[in-house]
From TrEMBL:
<dbReference type="GO" id="GO:0046872">
    <property type="term" value="F:metal ion binding"/>
</dbReference>
<dbReference type="InterPro" id="IPR023753">
    <property type="entry name" value="FAD/NAD-binding_dom"/>
</dbReference>
<dbReference type="GO" id="GO:0016491">
    <property type="term" value="F:oxidoreductase activity"/>
</dbReference>
<dbReference type="Pfam" id="PF14691">
    <property type="entry name" value="Fer4_20"/>
</dbReference>
<feature type="domain" description="Dihydroprymidine dehydrogenase">
    <location>
        <begin position="20"/>
        <end position="131"/>
    </location>
</feature>
<keyword id="KW-0560">Oxidoreductase</keyword>
<keyword id="KW-0411">Iron-sulfur</keyword>
<keyword id="KW-0479">Metal-binding</keyword>
<feature type="domain" description="FAD/NAD(P)-binding">
    <location>
        <begin position="146"/>
        <end position="451"/>
    </location>
</feature>
<keyword id="KW-0408">Iron</keyword>
<dbReference type="InterPro" id="IPR009051">
    <property type="entry name" value="Helical_ferredxn"/>
</dbReference>
<dbReference type="Pfam" id="PF07992">
    <property type="entry name" value="Pyr_redox_2"/>
</dbReference>
<dbReference type="InterPro" id="IPR006006">
    <property type="entry name" value="GltD-like"/>
</dbReference>
<keyword id="KW-0004">4Fe-4S</keyword>
<dbReference type="GO" id="GO:0051539">
    <property type="term" value="F:4 iron, 4 sulfur cluster binding"/>
</dbReference>
<dbReference type="InterPro" id="IPR028261">
    <property type="entry name" value="DPD_II"/>
</dbReference>
<protein>
    <submittedName>
        <fullName>NAD(P)-dependent oxidoreductase</fullName>
    </submittedName>
</protein>
Length: 476
């Protein structure tokens, strides 16, 4: 260990921008064995591991880096998977530059961070290859059942934890595939879909039942599901797009980010997508402007590049330093030809209801900090300009749907933001035996936080059901 003084930081090989613009394959190769161990050996094994402290899951990063450096890969996987139900996903899509790697001690001393995310991905991919990842076999089966609403990362993490305890778990999801935004929201160049389907198959082999194309409120009310299960976990995520508020925002050609990304991902999966086939959700041959500065906006601009848009511009009302998305993703987008207009906000969409044909943009400057702690953007009087645009994509974030109405459960309490109100310690809602986890509680956030919440909710449900004192059944 402590080789950071003699070995430079390296990332896995990244495909050149010209090549990756032509397909949706992941852009990074997997670490070779010797490179993974070499990079892991750079860890300083510091006394206060800030990487772990700044990982929402509290992953034991220094210990599994040491295991990789010493060639103990099975031990490394045991450590990695002890705190994370999907390390191969987090290794790919977590914004490590803002979490573990951004807090690395040797990064702060100027030596360049350990490439934690890439090593994490390497560990788990090796575990899959070697057959170390086995279906869950609980020591004893319990008769109590738990219904999980939503098959995104929070629901999947909770389902696995509950199966480890021997509970009967049934996951209900509105989509025809399991994974939620992991499948339909995140493009392949960041997360190839076989990674998600492989994890789903693992859960099915572990005894988790998936009920797909199922909408609570349409196929059953929340009350009816409660009657079928001993506990319920709501892990629906947040899907309601924040709207663009300016003249012309309803023009044809102004579309929501999730509609755009879902269409692209479905096409990649081989589905027939009418709105893509007509060109409404296909950026090919178009001038594209994406409004927003988060990771969803980066997914949109990089998708448009791969769909052969003639130009792709990202408008963000703050500067690069204050954007919420991963700076690594911004760099990847710039390499692929995306133009960023910093300190720029839409004033209005040009054209008419039949067709958008441009955007009027206001230049901004940063004023005093707002409630988020970032300096608020302020419009500069008279500083306006126009940008050509055939397609305008709104990537302004997501809000909660009206679950009390959708679930036909008016007693379900929500916060002023529309997210579900829960007990902070247990994640139980105001309805006894009904819990909630992930974005539907905390608002639009990271996959890693959804996994944190899913594990926390599963632990609380386990404690509640164990207190019922029902005799378990010995597993065969």
């Amino acid at each position: 260990m402590l080789k950071f003084v003699s070995r430079e930081r390296e990332t896995p090989m990244k495909r050149n921008s010209g090549e990756r613009r032509r397909d949706f394959d992941e852009i990074y190769a997997r670490f070779a064995d010797d490179h993974a161990s070499t990079q892991a050996s750079r860890c300083s094994q510091c006394g206060v591991p800030f990487c772990s402290d700044h990982c929402p899951l509290g992953n034991d990063i220094p210990d599994w880096l040491k295991a990789v450096a010493e060639g103990r890969l099975e031990d490394a996987y045991a450590l990695s998977s002890a705190t994370n139900n999907m390390p191969e996903v987090c290794g790919r899509i977590c914004p490590q530059d803002r979490l573990c790697e951004g807090s690395c001690v040797i990064e702060q001393s100027g030596h360049g961070t350990v490439t934690i995310g890439s090593v994490e991905q390497y560990i788990t991919e090796t575990a899959w290859d070697k057959g170390w990842i086995k279906p869950v076999k609980p020591a004893e089966e319990r008769p109590q059942s738990v219904g999980v609403i939503g098959a995104g990362p929070a629901g999947l993490a909770a389902a696995e934890e509950l199966r480890k305890e021997g509970f009967q778990v049934k996951v209900y999801d509105r989509y025809d595939r399991t994974g939620g935004l992991l499948v339909y929201g995140i493009p392949n160049f960041k997360l190839e879909k076989h990674v998600v389907s492989r994890r789903t198959e693992h859960l099915e082999k572990s005894g988790v039942q998936f009920i797909r194309n199922f909408e609570v409120g349409r196929d059953a009310t929340l009350a009816e599901l409660r009657a079928d299960h001993d506990a319920i976990l709501i892990a629906t995520g947040v899907y309601k797009a924040r709207d663009l508020v300016c003249p012309g925002s309803g023009n044809n050609g102004v579309i929501a980010a999730l509609d755009y990304l879902t269409a692209s991902n479905r096409k990649g999966l081989g589905d027939d997508v009418a709105a893509f086939n007509t060109g409404d959700l296909d950026a090919s041959g178009k001038s594209v402007v994406v409004i927003g500065g988060g990771d969803t906006a980066m997914d949109c601009v990089r998708t448009a590049v791969r769909q052969s848009a003639t130009s792709v511009i990202c408008l963000y009302r703050r500067d690069r330093k204050n954007m919420p998305g991963s700076l690594r993703e911004v760099a990847n987008a710039e390499e692929e030809g995306v133009i960023f207009e910093w300190l720029a906000a839409p004033k209005g969409v040009k054209g008419d209801a039949a067709k958008a044909n441009g955007i009027r943009v206001s230049k901004m400057e940063l004023g005093e900090p707002d409630e988020s702690g970032r300096r608020a953007p302020v419009e500069i009087d008279g500083a306006e300009f126009d940008i050509d645009a055939d397609m305008v994509i709104k990537a302004l974030g997501f809000e909660a749907e009206d679950l009390p109405a959708l679930f036909n459960e008016p007693d379900l309490k929500v916060t002023p933001r529309g997210t579900l109100r829960v007990d902070g310690a247990t994640l139980e809602t105001n309805i006894p035996g009904v819990y909630a986890a992930g974005d539907i509680v905390r608002g639009a956030s990271l996959v890693v936080w959804a996994i944190v919440d899913g594990r926390k909710a599963a632990a609380a449900i386990t404690m509640q059901l164990n207190s019922a004192n029902i005799t378990p059944i010995a597993a065969e």
